[in-house]
Every structure is written in structure tokens, then in C-alpha cells.
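Appendix B: a complete holo record

For completeness, this appendix reproduces one full record from the ligand-bound portion of the collection. The bound molecule is pyridoxal-5'-phosphate. The inputs are the chain sequence and the ligand SMILES; the output is the full three-dimensional arrangement of the complex, encoded as C-alpha cells. No fields have been trimmed.
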Amino acid sequence: MTEAEVMDLSLADFFLPDGRDPLVPPDGFTAWLEAGRRAVSLYEPTLLQGPVPRTTLAAPDGPQRVINMASYNYLGLSHRPEVVAASCAALREYGTGACGSPLLSGLTDLHRRLEAELSAFLGREQTMLFNSGFAGALGILAGTLRRGDVGVLDAKCHVCLVEGARLAGARLEFFDHNSAASLDDALARHKACRRLVVLEGVYSMDGDMGDLPGLVPVARDHGVGMMIDEAHSVLLFGQTGRGVTEHFGCDDAVTLKYGTFSKAFAGIGGFVSGPAELLNYLRLYASSYGFSCALPPAVVAGLLAALAVARREPGLRARAAENAEYFRTQLRGMGIDTGASTTQVVPVMIGSDRALLYDLCQELRRRGLFLAPVDYPAAPEDELRFRASITAAHTRADLDQALNILANVVAPRVQRRYS
Ligand SMILES: Cc1ncc(COP(=O)(O)O)c(C=O)c1O
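The structure of the chain with pyridoxal-5'-phosphate bound, as generated:
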């Protein structure tokens, strides 16, 4: 297979099976993977240190120091001494795992404290914890929607939300990204059905915010409830860090607030906060809650400490925002397209040239910048990109060094398309 043939294909070409045995990948897949090894080697990199701004990757020629813009450690909490200390203390006291599902084997007092503190922080009656963000989305949607219902999702919603609605057996309707008119149409088409509007606080590949001021009134006019995914926005936006609902002053308009602990909380897990009556139902009908192990207590203790730090130090989210603004402004100054980003998620648009995306990515890594390539179908075919995650922990020197590398490697190759 030639390089050009490899680059003509994407994951979408190997989705549908061509043989009779589901345990055998489609024809040509393994040859494609082998031939595209240069590109494939950029995925699942091995880190020899934590997800900090300057980290070390395992590379063929030995450990490589890089500036890390690929981790979601937005407030830099993964290595805060009080977070690590709380986690270590719980590890000693409670051991390594919860060793059972919440329903049958129970939750520790630490889990109960986190539920209560999140409910108080978010101004909601109750909170449920999941052992992953992805599992949380599946559980919430499959626990609330039923066959015959309609999940009305923003077209840019994360795959976990799409798969949650699918798992429920509900009909999926996508409305154009952030379009009030398109949402109105979608809701009007299914007036007779039970409907749920699902959107995100900050879109994970584009770094723009959900247009709550435009969308909330439409859902309200149709009498339809909303669920928001604040994975990339909780602890980062709003006066007190509650997220984009607080930022836009519409906390009360969104019934279910869902988020993950894998980003600004720098841990793992997911949560949903909302009305007690609904969550009491969900505890019994969200399979990923009832039939899957509870979060390890040591993780929960770290999350409690991370929440306390984020609440006590609003300067952290201000720093993340300032850093992102600086980084984006500098990129735009170089003629690099950062799409619709207004947040700490900053796309570096490349366009439709897949070979260019991977060539540039190899060169960025070689020069010491760790950025994630985003290929189709995770982004539209003509909007392949890198996605930079800017954090409060990046120093001005980290940002400037990364910008310098981007100015030398990326700007000369993409400038003409966007300037
Ligand atoms: C918007 C969004 N929602 C949910 C998730 C799933 O969260 P987790 O990775 O914590 O399972 C992600 C993951 O990146 C995400 O970007």
C-alpha cells in the first residue's frame, strides 16, 4: 500500500464488516495499519511522567522531553500536594478499590461527602457518581430515555452522549451546532414524543461554548428538559466555577448537569447532579451505575481535595483563561486558524490534507511539542486539526516555546489557506 493510498483511507472505511466472522477485522485493515505506522505511532503515546506541562514521552531514540498540550489537567491539580496527600491518606485507610457496585456493595463515607459537596457546589438537590465520565453519559441517557423517545442532540455532541441515546433505543435527532432555529425544527418535528435536549458546555474539539442564551428559550418554549455535559467547563467557567450554565446565568434552566472528573478535577469518574426524584429513579435504572464498581475511595478523596482547591483559588480558572487567550491570540497573529475557540480548548486547523496533519505532528513531536492530532471521523474531513489543551499550569515560557515551534513548523504550511 502506498503512502498516498494509506492517507486516502480513514477509520470510517473499516467500520462495516466484509467477512462473516465478527472476530476477524475487515479486509485490508491490518495492512492499512501497518502501512500507516508513522501516523499510527502518534496515537497512544507512552508517558514516562504525569500529565504536567513539561513531561517525558517514550520515543524510539529514548525518553523525549516535551511541552504537553495534550492533557486535560486544566487547573494543574493532578500534582497539587494537598490533592496527592488526601489521595494517599485514603489509600492507606480504605485500600485500593471499592470492590463492588454502589447498589449492592456500597459507597464509602468519602463518596457520600463528594455527592453532598458537589450538590451544594452546583446548587442541585442530589448528585450521583459514576466510575467514568463515558459510563456516566451512557447510564444517564439509557436510564432516562426509552424506545419511542427522542434524544435531541447538538450535532457536535461527544460520542458518549450519542451512544447513550442509542443504547436507550431512543430516536436520535441532531440539530445544527448551536442553532436555535434548527433546535426549534427538531423539537417541532417530534411534538408527540417525549424529548430531551442534550448539549455541551464547552465543545471538546472546537473549544466554543454551548449557546445557552439562544437554545434555552427554545427548549423552554417547547416545554422540553435539558441535559448539559460540562466535562470541559466545570470548575472553569462561571463566577464560582459551576460551569457554563453559571457563566450564562441559566443554572436553573438545565435540569441535569453532567460532567467528568478526568479533566479539571484531574482524576477519573463522572457525575450527574439534578432533582432528587429523578436521581432516585436513575440510581435504579442507570446500568452503568448499578452494575459497575464504585470509584476507588482514594480517587474520591483526591476529587474532594481538588474541588476544595478549585473553590478556594478562583485565580486558577482565571489563569487558564488568560493563558488560553494569549495562546490563541498569538496563533491568530501567525495566520493559524483556531476555529471558533473562545476557551482553553484551542484547535490548530490544518484542513483536509491528512498526510500534512501527520507530517506536521511528527515534526512537532521531534521538536518537543506534544499535541494531539484529530482526524476524521472525530472532526469533519475538511477540518483536520491539532487540539491544544491550555492549562493554568502552563507558564508563559511553556506557551512561548510551543508558539515558537508552531511558528516554525505549522504556520508556513497552513498560513495561505487561512490568512
Ligand atoms: C465532552 C465530553 N464528555 C464526556 C467525556 C467522557 O469523559 P471521560 O473521559 O472522563 O470518560 C469526554 C471525554 O473526553 C468529553 O470530551
